[in-house]
User: Which sequence fits this backbone?
C-alpha cells in the first residue's frame, strides 16, 4: 500500500475528478433524483482517512469547482462542502471506530446538513426545490459502504 | 461571496474554473458522442442513399418555399414602408452541439459546446428545427449553459398566432408543458392555437413557434384561467441547437430614407 504524501495528494485529486464525472453523468429520469452526491462522499472519506491533509480549504475549493461544473452560484456547493468536511474532520476519531452501519448513519447526517445548506441558498434565490430532491441524502448513506470498499481497494490511503 | 455573484465581478473566476473543469464534461460526454459517430459510420450504403434522396427532396421543397418567402419579405418591407414603420431583419445562427451532462435534477439547464470564444453571449435565444428551446443563461469560454423554456424560473413573452393576443408563457418544470397563468377566463384562446414569440422584451426574435395550446380550463371563481401548452421544440431529444444573433440594425425602408438606428426594438 502506497502511503507517501505525493501518492495521497494524487489519490485525493484523482478520486475527486472521478467523483465529479460521476456527478454529472446523465441518468434516466427516475434514477436522476436518487444519485447521491459522489463528490461529497469522496470528500468525507478523505476527511476520515487523512484528516490532516484533507482540509476544509481543499473541500471549499472542490466545492467551487463543482459549482462551476453544475452551473450553480459560486460558493453554493463550496459552503455546503466546507461545513460538512469541518464536521467530519472534527469527528473523525470517533467515526473510524464505528461499525459500518453507524458510519452510514453519520454520513447521512452530514449529507443532510450539506443538503440543508445547499437548498437554503437555493430558496433564497427563489428556486423551488421539489421534495424528491432530498432523496440523495438517503441513497448517499446507503452507498457509503460501497464508497468505503472502492476507496480502500484503490489503495492510495486507507484507514 | 454569494452576494457578489449577483453582479458580474466574479465572472473571470468562473471563466477560469470552467476551463479547468471542461475536460471532465468532455470525458463524460465522450462515450455517447463516440457511440453516435460509430453508428453513423456503420450505416449501410443503401440507407445513406435513401436518406440522401429524402434530404434532396426536402431541400427542393424548402427552396421552393424560400422563393415564396423572399417574395413575401419584400412585400412586407414595401407595405411597412407605406405605413412608415421600420422593419427588423437579419438573424445569424450558430450551430452548437449538446454536451450530455446533467447539472441539477430539478433545473432545466443544458450545456452546449460553443462558448464565448465563438461570440456567444448571455441572453441569446436558442432554437432547434421546430421552435424556441430556450436562452443562453451563462456563456463560459468553452461552453455555455442554456436554460430551457420549461424551467420553472423561465418566462417567455408569446403571442397567439391566430389573433395576436399577447401573454407570457412560464415553464412548469415538466419538459412537455408550459403554463400561461395571466389570461382571463374569457380570453380568446383555444386548444390547438400556435404560440409564437412576440419579440417583446428584446431577447427572443419575433415570430418563431414556441408551443401549441393543449388545454384550457376555465376557473369561474378566479380571475385567471388555467391554460397549458406543449412546446413545439423537441426539448429532450434534439442534439443540435441553433444559437441566434439578433441583428439590431434595421434595414432602410427605401433608398432615400435612412432610418435611425434606435428604431423599434
Assistant:
Amino acid at each position: 500500500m502506497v502511503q507517501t504524501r505525493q501518492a495521497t495528494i494524487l489519490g485525493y485529486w484523482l478520486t475527486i475528478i472521478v467523483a465529479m464525472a460521476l456527478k454529472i453523468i446523465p441518468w434516466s429520469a427516475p434514477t436522476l433524483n436518487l444519485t447521491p452526491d459522489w463528490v461529497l462522499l469522496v470528500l468525507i472519506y478523505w476527511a476520515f482517512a487523512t484528516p490532516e491533509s484533507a482540509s476544509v480549504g481543499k473541500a471549499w475549493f472542490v466545492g467551487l469547482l463543482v459549482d462551476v461544473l453544475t452551473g450553480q452560484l459560486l460558493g453554493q456547493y463550496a459552503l455546503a462542502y466546507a461545513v460538512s468536511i469541518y464536521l467530519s474532520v472534527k469527528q473523525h476519531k470517533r467515526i473510524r471506530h464505528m461499525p459500518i452501519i453507524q458510519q452510514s448513519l453519520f454520513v447521512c447526517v452530514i449529507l443532510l446538513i450539506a443538503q440543508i445548506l445547499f437548498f437554503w441558498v437555493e430558496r433564497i434565490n427563489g428556486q423551488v426545490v421539489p421534495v424528491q430532491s432530498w432523496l440523495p441524502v438517503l441513497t448517499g448513506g446507503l452507498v457509503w459502504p460501497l464508497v468505503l470498499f472502492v476507496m480502500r481497494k484503490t489503495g492510495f490511503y486507507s484507514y | 461571496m454569494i452576494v457578489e455573484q449577483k453582479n458580474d465581478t466574479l465572472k473571470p473566476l468562473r471563466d477560469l474554473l470552467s476551463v479547468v473543469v471542461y475536460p471532465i464534461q468532455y470525458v463524460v460526454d465522450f462515450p455517447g458522442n463516440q457511440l453516435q459517430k460509430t453508428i453513423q459510420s456503420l450505416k449501410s450504403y443503401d440507407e445513406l442513399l435513401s436518406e440522401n434522396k429524402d434530404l434532396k427532396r426536402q431541400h427542393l421543397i424548402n427552396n421552393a418555399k424560400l422563393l415564396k418567402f423572399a417574395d413575401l419579405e419584400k412585400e412586407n418591407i414595401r407595405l411597412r414602408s407605406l405605413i412608415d414603420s421600420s422593419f427588423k431583419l437579419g438573424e445569424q445562427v450558430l450551430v452548437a452541439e449538446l454536451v450530455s451532462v446533467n447539472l441539477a435534477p430539478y433545473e432545466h439547464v443544458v450545456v452546449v459546446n460553443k462558448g464565448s470564444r465563438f461570440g456567444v453571449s448571455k441572453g441569446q435565444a436558442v432554437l432547434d428545427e421546430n421552435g424556441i428551446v430556450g436562452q443562453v443563461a451563462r456563456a463560459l469560454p468553452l461552453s455555455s449553459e442554456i436554460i430551457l423554456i420549461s424551467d420553472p424560473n423561465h418566462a417567455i413573452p408569446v403571442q397567439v398566432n391566430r389573433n395576436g393576443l399577447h401573454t407570457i408563457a412560464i415553464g412548469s418544470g415538466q419538459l412537455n408543458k408550459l403554463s400561461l397563468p395571466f389570461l382571463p377566463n374569457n380570453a380568446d384562446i383555444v386548444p390547438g392555437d400556435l404560440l409564437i414569440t412576440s419579440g417583446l422584451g428584446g431577447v427572443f426574435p419575433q415570430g418563431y413557434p414556441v408551443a401549441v395550446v393543449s388545454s384550457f380550463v376555465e376557473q369561474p371563481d378566479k380571475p385567471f384561467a388555467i391554460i397549458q401548452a406543449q412546446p413545439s421544440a423537441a426539448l429532450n431529444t434534439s442534439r443540435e441547437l441553433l444559437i441566434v444573433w439578433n441583428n439590431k440594425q434595421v434595414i432602410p425602408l427605401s433608398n432615400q430614407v435612412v432610418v435611425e438606428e434606435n428604431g423599434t426594438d
In short: The first strand of chain B starts at residue 87 and ends at 88. Chain B is about 25% helix and 30% strand. The CA atoms of residues 96 and 241 of chain B lie 5 Å apart. Chain B has a mean pLDDT of 80.
